[in-house]
Design a protein that fits this description.
alpha+beta, about 30% helix, 4 helices, 3-stranded antiparallel beta sheet
Amino acid sequence: MIKHRGFPSRLPGTDFQFTIRRPNPKGVTAIIRRERFKDRKYADRRADLGFMQALWEAFGTEPFERGNLDAGRLSWLFGREVKAFDPDTFDPEDYDALLVIDEAVARSSFPDAIDGDGIL
């Protein structure tokens, strides 16, 4: 499992986790698409914004390995702003799975994260 050095481990001042420290000994947690409903708490929406900003600053439009990125946090963006780089070979339970940011969707959903006016 690759560790993304320099990537924030959590949203500053909160317990919203962005990375994991070590592989799960019980097996890899799958990345799934979670629905973001309009009535989500402000703190949850802020965590999504912070995570998207960190992803954009670290990777931009380049493909990246899932590595030590938190599956739960990725799942809130997966299928919309973050997509499988190669959907035909993508394994949601693989730390080596390649992901990519869909810039158009990310700009639409999180303009502050992409334009540099985010929260980190």
